[in-house]
From TrEMBL:
Pathway: Plant hormone metabolism; auxin biosynthesis. Its cofactor is FAD. GO terms for biological process: auxin biosynthetic process. It is an enzyme of class 1 (oxidoreductase). The lineage of its organism: Eukaryota, Viridiplantae, Streptophyta, Embryophyta, Tracheophyta. Its EC number is 1.14.13.168. It comes from Gossypium raimondii. It comes from the Eukaryota. InterPro entries: Auxin_biosynth/cation_transpt, FAD/NAD-bd_sf, Flavin_mOase-like. Belongs to the FMO family. It catalyses: indole-3-pyruvate + NADPH + O2 + H(+) = (indol-3-yl)acetate + CO2 + NADP(+) + H2O. Keywords: Auxin biosynthesis, FAD, Flavoprotein, Monooxygenase, NADP, Oxidoreductase. GO terms for molecular function: flavin adenine dinucleotide binding; indole-3-pyruvate monooxygenase activity; N,N-dimethylaniline monooxygenase activity; NADP binding. This is indole-3-pyruvate monooxygenase.
Length: 300
């Protein structure tokens, strides 16, 4: 609200058969809905005419209901790999769509957590060298994954995560199923038809169900009326590490594409900045209006 200089946040809470509208009025607004607030459902030609069950990975609970089925898993990130593995464990026949390059790393390297090894090496070595060492270790543990249709990006896994926000896959057993042929790796989709999918290489597969492991995105543009700090993609326009503070008391936490470490950095900067502003203003004995809310009950 430019007139008052405060942020007004309207929310709706369901209470029994009623929907209660709450309006919060605050001096500072911290946007912490994150990078994965809503699922991404791609617009694929013919999907509406497919005729079988189509779900997003966020709705996937177990492979039990897919026993004996031919299932197309769209996406080869951590969700796609884990869903494909679980389907195998329930005697389904998954085909996993791999449209682009992907880094697959072992979850453990000779009994040590890959994550712990990365954290340890980053204390002493530059990122580019850690990337090279991780790829060597991955080759020693997993072998050459490219011959199974999993082409590696030219950029290292950590650099790719930091610059593009693309998380490497930590293998928990799916690669073994890919090597054995239990998980069929296929290229991108051209179109769907009734109970069938056509791939870009011209191959056609008969399938019973589809699981969309197509990721998530920020939903900030759908609810925040502001176009200066956040871009159309729902991320702060300023690059890391400058994308945590906007104008008029607006902050962002968890949009760095750097996982918990990035969110932690944003949170500390935000807390310190608000704390400093609060102390400076209270020292001058200014009257501060604290966050509150207004409630009205209405039927929808």
């Amino acid at each position: 609200d430019e007139t008052s200089g405060f942020w007004r946040v309207k929310t709706i809470v369901t209470s029994g058969s009623n929907k209660i509208e709450l309006e919060y009025i605050c001096r500072w607004l911290v946007v912490a809905t994150g990078e994965n607030a809503e699922r991404v459902v791609p617009d694929i030609q013919g999907l509406a005419e497919f005729g079988g069950e189509v779900i997003h990975a966020c709705e996937y609970k177990s492979g039990e209901k897919f026993q004996g089925q031919k299932v197309l898993v769209v996406g080869c990130g951590n969700s796609g790999m884990e869903v494909s593995l679980d389907l195998c464990n329930y005697n389904a026949s998954p085909s996993m769509v791999v449209r682009s390059s992907v880094h697959v790393l072992p979850r453990e390297v000779y009994g040590k957590s890959t994550f712990e090894l990365v954290v340890l090496m980053m204390k002493w070595l530059p990122l580019w060298l850690v990337d090279k060492l991780m790829l060597v270790l991955a080759w020693l543990v997993l072998g050459n994954v490219e011959k199974y249709g999993l082409k590696r990006p030219s950029m290292g896994p950590l650099e790719l995560k930091n610059t593009k926000g693309k998380t490497p896959v930590l293998d928990i057993g799916a690669l073994k199923k890919i090597k054995s042929g239990d998980i069929n790796v296929v290229p991108a989709i051209k179109r769907f038809s009734y109970r069938q999918v056509e791939l870009v290489n011209g191959e056609k597969l008969d399938i019973d169900s589809v699981v969309l492991a197509t990721g998530y995105r920020s939903n900030v543009p759908s609810w925040l009326q502001e176009g200066e700090f956040f871009g159309e993609n729902g991320y702060p326009k300023a690059p890391f590490p400058h994308g945590w503070k906007g104008n008029g008391g607006l902050y962002a936490v968890g949009f760095t594409r750097r996982g918990l470490s990035g969110a932690s950095s944003d949170a500390m900067r935000t807390a310190q900045d608000i704390g400093k502003l609060w102390k400076d203003e209270t020292k001058q004995h200014k009257k501060i209006t604290i966050a509150g809310h207004r409630q009205c009950i209405s039927q929808f």
